[in-house]
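ugh ok fine here u go
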Amino acid sequence: MERVLIVEDDENIRQLLKLTLASFNYELVDFENGQDAYEYLQNNKVDLAILDLMLPGMNGYDILKFIRSKASLKDLPVIILSAKDKELDKIMGLDLGADDYLTKPFSVLELAARIRSLLRRSKKDERMIQIHGLCIDLDKRTVSIDEHPVELTFKEFELLKYLAKNEGRAVAREELINQIWGYDFIGESRTLDVHINSLRKKMGSEYAHWIQSVRQVGYRFVVGDNDA
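structure:
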């Protein structure tokens, strides 16, 4: 079930959106101000965001800038839903990275159609993970960094894929072992560390720090952080 984020300060419009989109079987998360939405997006993933522009606190433009600046969110489909109907407003929103711009008053059925279209387009890109210079092709099972191929074993590929998909989240050792080796794995947990060390070496000194060790937890994939 796709998760849709709604950021709208008008209670009536927010409830209308929730009622309509729930009928299309979307999981909905809604906020009435930009700051709460910003904090939610720090540690949670959604499949599409609907943003009002004129919000208390952090406005829609600022949320959009944050989304496009964060590696794990940069490809998130975003629809601006706003009463600001001037051409300049639309141009600014689209130039900042919005995928669509709908002005109020609006047709909920048209909005639903645009959501479906964006989600279909987004799903076509799910077989490729691209984060800065890192490219993971899930169908071909290939990895490249700055367009240079990186040869990985089966387990190394699965580890990198899982960590990259959970970028920014501290993933527990037990979770990684269960996901990569299976729940019936009876080997030593040190096996995970050996594979992580090998993966870091193959990624090279410039990118090895993207895989961080989290004390007493496991590992975390963080792009551009040198405090590994």
